[in-house]
Amino acid sequence: MDDRGKKSPPSGSEEEIAEKRREQRYTVPDACQEHIKLQVKSGNEFVPALLGNFSRNGILFESPVPFRQGEHTECIVSISFMPTREISFGIEVRYCYADHGSHITGAAVDTISDENWFDVFVDAHDFIVLRQCSR
Fold first, then answer.
1. CATH superfamily assigned to domain 21-132
2. Could you say which of 56, 67, 113, 115 has the lowest number of CB atoms within 10 Å?
3. How would you label 38-53 residue by residue, b for 16+ Cβ within 10 Å and e otherwise?
4. How far apart are the C-alpha atoms of 78 and 73, rounded to whole Å?
C-alpha cells in the first residue's frame, strides 16, 4: 500500500508543535474536564469526547470512535455553569490515531455558529482554569 498521500500526526514536543501555530491554543487540564463538555457527531449521533485544546482555528480531542482524515463533522461545546449556552462548530479532520483504546483527533475548525460565543467560551475557559481547577 502506498502511504505517500497520508499525513502523519504532528511530531515533536507539545512546545515545538505550539510554536508552529499562528494563534494561541487553550489547553483544558484534566481537572477541568468535568466543567467543559465536548460532543462530536459520528454518523447520526453525537459521542462524548475529551477536549484537549482548542483555538479559533483548530481543536484536539480524544474520543471513543475514530474519524477519517478529511472528514467534515460537527461539534458542540458546553460549559457546566452556562447550561443554556452551547457553541456548535464544524470541523475538518486533519489526523486521527489510536491511543490506548481511544482515538486522538486533530482538526481544523471550518465554521463557528456564533463568533461572539467563541470569545465568551475563551473567557469561560480562562475562568475555569484559573479559578476552579487551580485548587
1. predicted glycosyltransferase like domains (2.40.10.220)
2. 115
3. bbbbbeeeeeebbbbb
4. 17
For the record, the C-alpha cell of 21 comes out as: 501555530
Q: Please, which residues have CB within 8 angstroms of residue 82's CB and are 6 or more apart in sequence?
A: 124
| E-state strands within the chain | 26-27, 36-42, 45-54, 58-63, 72-79, 82-99, 102-112
Question: What is the chain's pLDDT, residue by residue, as a tens digit (135 residues)?
Answer: 333 333 344 444 444 444 455 677 878 888 888 888 999 999 999 999 999 988 878 899 999 999 999 999 999 988 877 766 788 899 999 999 999 999 999 999 988 776 666 676 667 666 666 655 555
Q: pLDDT at position 131, please?
A: 59
Q: Where in the chain are the domains?
A: 21-132
58-63 and 82-99 strand pairing: unpaired
3 state DSSP class of 69: coil
Cβ partners under 8 Å of residue 109, min gap 6: 54, 55, 56, 57, 58, 59, 89, 90, 91
Longest dimension (CA), the chain: 51
Which H or E run contains 116? Answer: helix 115-127
